């Protein structure tokens, strides 16, 4: 009897403890459980990342007092109009997009055979080595690599030394140097998704194609390419978006040319005109959103 | 010559904030809206600490290089413990001063009057600074360190933006800026220029001599028409530019490899290129732009006595010599050269008044013409920035 009484007295107490009630509540309400789990990362993503970014972009509609450097919060479309109609911004936008497109094409052209070899030809051991080799440059600082290209491309650099016997010369600093350097910098970001996409192509499909008399090129074009197309698009998003926003490489090897990133940089750092800088920053954002909207249907976004 | 953090580049950006200012040599002054507070009458006890806001390399305490330390002797001497923060641009300095918490700031010509106008710095009673007497007269009470005859600080180092050229490829030796402007064609693709809107003033200095009909009196006071002429000159120059520079290490490398053979420079770069590239520098006949920095005291300084002690100390021959030599500029104290290494003062033309008079010290252009004209409105720094971006294209 005595033991029983104790039990009866204990059980309701422990059933009513806060922790227990909490876990009961959570186990009965899976949605609540999920929202608690996700709230921290969502607050981070939503408030700290996206809202902060939007808040920054809102300054595009404000103006700056040229004497005190203080931002006055009068709503105006002046900055947007300047950026959309100004010849300078149009020229630079065209140049920037041109560089980004070239870099993307070059990277995909180089990445395709490498990724194919890694995924379909190399032995498992070789495959691992190649993945490490592709990742290796990412361990070095961006700046170190860009400055390395600066010395490679200079008048007394190794490229000049290599090309001289053939009567050629280094492109020197300028847009071509920017394209070369950016293509080098973003290459791993293009190889990896394409490699991942090729890994997912079953060997049996290639064999089936061969059995049915498919030659190498038709097999690649009709069987492999459609399967890895989203992966290629995924790689292109990296190369394109990263090139679009770059300003450091342009500073280092770009000679006298400038890209959108440089205009943003000078307007923030030199001119202290945050509103105009924010307005310029909208250009690459609009372009990349446009690109994402176009490629959304390919399913490429699932491959990022 | 000791090489430094990439700092001059940063000072360079100095040419760059937005302000009220005036010009070297002409001596006119324009206050911003700043009310003149009374300077300190006498000094009290040291407060035990002082916080500095400075260009990198201006307050070394041995933590970057154990051999470079002029802060520790000050701390031992006065008992004022120094905390220092370095900034990258004049804009950054101005914003940091607005947030408060600093007792002392060192400002370049463009930021100084802006700080005065915003009431962020106080007048300095130079009678309380023993080392003020030792400062070169041509640096005292200039338009960028005084307002209405009231001193706002003590001068630090100064220097000119010179013309550097490769002696093997640029012949005959140039004596004019025309090698980077009208006569740049032979060196097309290998010309460099300073990457900042303030470089427009360099073009204006050139136009003062070569197109006198434009009537430019002061390279920082350009009306619409004069600015357009400078922009036109710079756009023509653009096709010959190999690259613009703002990071001085980048320019040193370009001269070493021969990617650049002629363009603007600072003496410090020529010094570090000695032995590695056949370069010479010259102050061309037209004159040049340059900089002169000032140590100032915050109007809300919590440790004014230690602040005065720092201003006095950094202008002393020993400290001034150490700081300006480390940074690579001419000292402001006449006796500093005794404490600098052999030849370093000569290299920077320290104390050469005639040389200094050819320098148009950086000032930020404002709408109210700095040369005193009242019949026209001048182009302000915002307009220069826009123009500069268009020039680069």
Shape of chain A: flat
Output the helix-strand order of chain B: HEHEHEHEEEEEEHHEHEHEEHHHHEH
* Biggest interface between chains: A-B, 31 and 39 residues
Question: What profile does the largest beta sheet of chain B have?
Answer: 7 strands, mixed
Number of helices, where a helix is a run of at least 4 consecutive DSSP H or I residues of chain A: 14
Roughly how much helix do the residues of chain A carry, as a percent range? over 70%
Give the N-to-C terminal Cα separation of chain B: 37 Å
> Strand pairing plus helix content of chain A: what structural class?
mainly alpha
Give Rg of chain B in angstroms. 20 Å
Strand order of the largest sheet of chain A: 1-2
Q: What's the overall average pLDDT of chain A, rounded? A: 87
The profile of the biggest β sheet of chain A is:
2 strands, antiparallel
Class by alpha and beta content of chain B: alpha/beta
**Unreliable segments of chain B (pLDDT under 50, ≥5 consecutive)?**
1-35
* Total number of strands of chain B: 14
Helix residue percentage of chain B: 25-40%
Mean pLDDT of chain B: 84
Shape of chain B: globular
Low-confidence runs of at least 5 consecutive residues of chain A: 1-9
Q: How is the secondary structure organized here?
A:
The complex is a heterodimer of chains A (304) and B (393).
Chain A: H1 2-15, H2 18-28, H3 30-58, E1 63-64, E2 71-72, H4 78-85, H5 87-121, H6 124-135, H7 142-153, H8 158-163, H9 175-199, H10 203-211, H11 216-245, H12 248-253, H13 260-270, H14 274-295
Antiparallel strand pairs in A: 1-2
Chain B: H1 8-12, E1 49-54, H2 71-78, E2 81-86, H3 90-99, E3 104-107, H4 109-117, E4 121-122, E5 146-147, E6 150-151, E7 154-160, E8 162-166, E9 191-194, H5 200-210, H6 224-238, E10 241-245, H7 248-257, E11 262-265, H8 267-273, E12 279-282, E13 288-298, H9 304-314, H10 317-327, H11 344-347, H12 353-357, E14 359-361, H13 381-392
Parallel strand pairs in B: 1-2, 1-3, 9-10, 9-11, 13-14
Antiparallel strand pairs in B: 3-13, 4-13, 5-6, 7-13, 8-11, 8-12
Helix pairs in contact in B: 3-4, 5-6, 6-13, 7-8
């Amino acid at each position: 009897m005595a033991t029983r009484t104790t039990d009866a007295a204990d059980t309701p107490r422990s059933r009513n403890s806060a922790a227990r009630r909490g876990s009961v509540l959570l186990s009965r309400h899976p949605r609540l459980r999920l929202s608690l789990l996700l709230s921290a990362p969502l607050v981070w993503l939503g408030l700290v990342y996206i809202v902060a970014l939007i808040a920054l972009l809102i300054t595009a509609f404000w103006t700056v007092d040229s004497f005190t450097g203080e931002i006055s919060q009068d709503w105006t479309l002046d900055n947007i109009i300047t950026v959309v109609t100004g010849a300078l911004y149009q020229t630079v936008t065209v140049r920037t997009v041109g560089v980004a497109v070239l870099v993307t094409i070059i990277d995909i052209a180089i990445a395709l055979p490498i990724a194919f070899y890694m995924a379909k030809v190399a032995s498992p051991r070789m495959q691992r080595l190649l993945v490490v080799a592709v990742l290796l440059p990412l361990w070095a600082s961006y700046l170190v690599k860009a400055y390395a290209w600066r010395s490679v491309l200079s008048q007394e650099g190794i490229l000049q030394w290599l090309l001289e016997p053939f009567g050629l010369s280094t492109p020197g600093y300028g847009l071509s140097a920017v394209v070369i350097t950016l293509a080098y910098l973003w290459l791993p970001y293009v190889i990896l998704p394409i490699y991942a996409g090729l890994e997912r192509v079953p060997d049996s499909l290639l064999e089936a194609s061969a059995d049915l008399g498919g030659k190498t090129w038709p097999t690649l074009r009709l069987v492999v390419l459609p399967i890895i197309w989203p992966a290629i698009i995924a790689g292109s998003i990296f190369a394109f978006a990263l090139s679009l926003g770059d300003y450091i490489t342009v500073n280092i090897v770009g000679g006298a040319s400038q890209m959108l990133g440089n205009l943003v940089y000078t307007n923030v750092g030199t001119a202290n005109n945050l509103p105009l800088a924010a307005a310029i920053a909208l250009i690459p954002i609009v372009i990349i959103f446009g690109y994402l909207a176009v490629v959304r249907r390919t399913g490429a976004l699932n491959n990022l | 010559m000791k090489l430094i953090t990439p700092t001059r580049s940063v000072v360079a950006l100095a040419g760059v904030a937005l302000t009220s200012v005036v010009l070297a040599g002409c001596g006119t002054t324009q206050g911003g809206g700043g009310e003149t507070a009374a300077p300190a009458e006498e000094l009290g006890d040291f407060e035990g600490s002082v916080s500095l806001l400075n260009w990198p390399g201006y307050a070394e305490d041995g933590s970057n290089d154990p051999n470079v330390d002029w802060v520790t002797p000050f701390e031992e001497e006065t008992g004022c413990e120094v905390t220092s923060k370095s900034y990258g641009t004049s804009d950054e300095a101005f914003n940091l001063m607005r947030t408060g918490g600093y007792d002392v700031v060192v400002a370049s010509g463009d930021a100084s009057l802006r700080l005065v106008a915003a009431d962020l710095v106080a007048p300095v009673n130079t009678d309380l600074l023993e080392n003020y007497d030792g400062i070169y007269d041509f640096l005292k009470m200039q338009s960028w360190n005084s307002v209405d005859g009231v001193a706002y600080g003590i001068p630090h180092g100064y220097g000119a933006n010179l013309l550097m050229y490769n002696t093997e490829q640029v012949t005959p030796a140039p004596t004019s800026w025309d090698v980077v402007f009208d006569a740049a064609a032979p060196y097309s693709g290998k010309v460099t220029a300073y990457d900042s809107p303030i470089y427009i003033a360099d073009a204006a200095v050139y136009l003062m001599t070569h197109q006198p009909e434009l009537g430019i009196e002061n390279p920082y006071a350009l009306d619409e028409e004069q600015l357009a002429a400078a922009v036109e000159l710079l756009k023509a120059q653009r096709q010959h530019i190999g690259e613009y520079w703002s990071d001085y290490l980048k320019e040193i490398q370009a001269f070493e490899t021969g990617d650049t053979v002629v363009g603007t420079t600072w003496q410090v770069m020529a010094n570090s290129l000695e032995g590695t590239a056949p370069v010479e520098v010259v102050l061309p006949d037209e004159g040049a732009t340059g900089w002169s920095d000032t140590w100032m005291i915050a109007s809300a300084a919590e440790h004014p006595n230690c602040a005065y002690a720092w201003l006095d100390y950094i202008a002393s021959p020993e400290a001034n010599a150490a700081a300006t030599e480390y940074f690579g500029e001419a000292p402001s104290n006449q006796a500093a050269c005794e404490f600098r290494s052999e030849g370093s003062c000569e290299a920077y033309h320290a104390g050469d008044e005639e040389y200094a008079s050819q320098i148009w010290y950086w000032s930020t252009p404002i709408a109210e013409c700095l040369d005193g004209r009242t019949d026209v409105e001048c182009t302000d720094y915002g307009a220069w920035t826009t123009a500069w971006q268009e020039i680069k294209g």
